[in-house]
Specification:
The structure holds 2 protein chains of 2 kinds. Chain A is an alpha/beta fold. Chain A has a single domain, classed as Hypothetical Protein Ychn, Chain: A (3-Layer(aba) Sandwich). Chain A is built from 5 helices and 5 strands; from the N terminus they run αβαβαβαβαβ. Chain A has a 5-stranded parallel β-sheet with strand order 4-3-2-1-5. In chain A, helix 2 links the parallel strand 1 and strand 2. The longest helix of chain A is centred in the N-terminal third of the chain and has 13 residues. By secondary structure, chain B is of the alpha/beta class. Helix content of chain B is 30%, strand content 22%. Chain B contains 4 helices and 5 strands. In chain B, strand 1, helix 1 and strand 2 form a beta-alpha-beta unit. The longest helix of chain B is centred in the C-terminal third of the chain and has 10 residues. Chain B is globular and about 35 Å long. The chains are: A alpha/beta, B alpha/beta. Chains A and B meet through loops of A and helix 3 of B.
Chain lengths: 129, 102
Amino acid sequence: MAEPWEEEEGPVKKFMFVNRKAPYGTIYALESLEVVLISAAFDQDVSLVFMDDGVYQIKKGQDSKGIGMKNFSPTYRALEGYDIEKLFVEKESMESRGLTAEDMIVPVEILSKDELTSLMEEQDVILTF
Amino acid sequence: MAMLHTVNKSPFEKRSLDGALSHAVNGAAILMIEDGIYGALKGTAISGKIEKSLATLKVYVLGPDLKARGMTEDQVIDGVTVVDYAGFVDLVTEYDKVQAWL
C-alpha cells in the first residue's frame, strides 16, 4: 500500500535552470547539474537553458583526463531518463562562439534571445548558475 | 624583459584577455589556459583580436584544457601554438617573468 506522502500530489511548478558558465573553470556547471537532478525527483516541470558561456557545457567530445577532472558531460544525455526533455540553447550565444546545434551532445531547441525572454516570463521559479 | 602573460578566463565573460593583449609588448607571449582557451578558437566573435595580435606576439594555448572542453587542435586559430604541460614549463623558464591575468 502506498504511503500517504506518496499519494499526495504536490503542486507542480515551472522551474527553469539557466546555465551561463563554462564547465571545469568554475564549479557552477556541475553544481547546476546536481540541482537539476534533485529537482527531477520532485516531478516538477523543468526547463534547462544554456546561454552565454553555458553553451560550452554541452559541447560534444569533452575529454578531461588530461586535466585530472571528471568529465560530467555524459550526464546531460541521461536527463531524458529523468523526464527532463526541455533543453534550450540561446542562438546568439551559440553563434558568437562559432558553434552550431550539431556541436551539442544532446538534442536541443535553439531559441532567439527574444523567444527565450518570453519563455522566462512563463516560469514560476528561475535559478541561474 | 620579455614577459609571458597567462590568461585563464573566458574572453566572453571577463576582460582578462584584453588586459593581457593591451599590455603585451617587447617580444611578449600570451598563453591561454583553463577557460582562457575559448579565446584561441577559430570562427568566434573574438577570433579577430587574436588573429591581429599574431603579427606582433607569440600566442600559445594549453592542449589538455582544449581537449577537456571538447575542442580539437584544428579548431585553433592558425598561428597559435598548442603546448602540453611540459611546454607550459618550458615557456615559464624561457621568459623572464610571468604575469597571470585572472
